[in-house]
Amino acid sequence: MEIFDRMCQRDHEQLVFWNEPRIGYKGIIAIHNTTLGPALGGTRFWNYATDDEAIEDSLRLARGMTYKSALAGLNLGGGKSVIIGDPNTRDREMIFRAHGRAVESLAGRYITAEDVGTSPADMDFVHMETDHVVGLMGKSGDPSPVTAYGVYQGMKAAALHKYGDDSLAGKHVTVQGCGHVGYFLCQDLAEEGARLTVTDIDQEKVDVVVKEFDAKSVGPDAIYAVEADVFAPCALGAILNDDTLKVLAVDIVVGGANNQLAETRHAQEVEDKGILYGPDYLVNAGGLINVYAEIQGWPAERSLRKAGEIYNTLLRILELAESEGITTAKASDRVAEQRMEEVGYLHRTELGSLEF
């Protein structure tokens, strides 16, 4: 499919390519929608197999950020950037300074932050070339605790809707991914008394969670078939697919990973199995809230309080889906699109009222 066709397919506004061959920088910035405000989305550093795969990832993730911001009630649009390369690269300064130049070229239409394969230290390098970056060392920093707290609150809301009680004490939760978000989610769950079964491709991360939170562990491919109350995907996306849905044996799916549905149709297939799905871009919005707080100058307590609102927002989505007979994914899209339409209307009204 041609580039402009791909952009039109999901209503993207802008796609930027930036190349610095002498230092090995190859970057892509996708801006999906700026109706609500400047596009904000992290920078992903990943060893993509092809340029086409990197383009698709940036477009898909940028769109997700638009909807995430809208549902979280933030005055931000959606964007995302990817850097093609080895995320384990040690000499990072020039790569991320080049990325900062690419971000600066957009003059504030796009604000970046950390994401998979990047860190607050990398964002400090970006900051050498642009002010349009958040998640800096000494400021909002690592968003993982806030992201995990939002997922935890979403899980409690889903439990209330499914069981009539939001307590997770004694519930069996399987967690896929023991990185930053997965770790802090396990901490929140363990403090409430949930039983944990975890997995990760990095055994050292698994060992830490098992030791600190009295969790059990299984192999990465075995996690899907573990019978449990809740499954929390906190690694990469597309894990709700034709293969995993054949063996998934849980009541609820709520997790921190982006783009959990491999295809749109899988939302209906999850529901057909009697599984309640908390849309990922709603429940994992805590990280976005954390960096938005940096822009607004909020204290850390306000970030957590805002992430806690995910509880009521998900309940609203679940009730809408049930009353309309639609999937939770479609219901969340509808609420996000309604907010964008209403704010867009206000903007048009303001322009229309000007006198010349």
Features:
alpha/beta; Rossmann fold; 6-stranded mixed beta sheet; 6-stranded parallel beta sheet
**Beta-strand share of residues:** 5-15%
SSE ordering? HEEEEHEHEHHEHEHEEEHEHHHHH
Given helix and strand content, the structural type is alpha/beta
Which fold does the CATH topology of the largest domain refer to? Answer: Rossmann fold
Radius of gyration: 20 Å
- Spans of at least 5 consecutive residues whose pLDDT stays below 50 are none
Annotated CATH architecture of the largest domain: 3-Layer(aba) Sandwich
Main pleated-sheet profile: 6 strands, mixed
Number of strands: 12
Number of domains: 2
The CA-CA distance between the termini, in Å, is 45 Å
Summary?
With 356 residues, this protein is of the alpha/beta class. Helix content is 46%, strand content 15%.
Give a written overview of the molecule:
The protein is an alpha/beta fold and 356 residues long. The protein folds into two domains: 113 residues, Rossmann fold (3-Layer(aba) Sandwich), CATH 3.40.50; 170 residues, 3-Layer(aba) Sandwich (Rossmann fold), CATH 3.40.50. Helix content is 46%, strand content 15%. It is globular and about 55 Å long. The protein starts with a helix and ends with a helix.
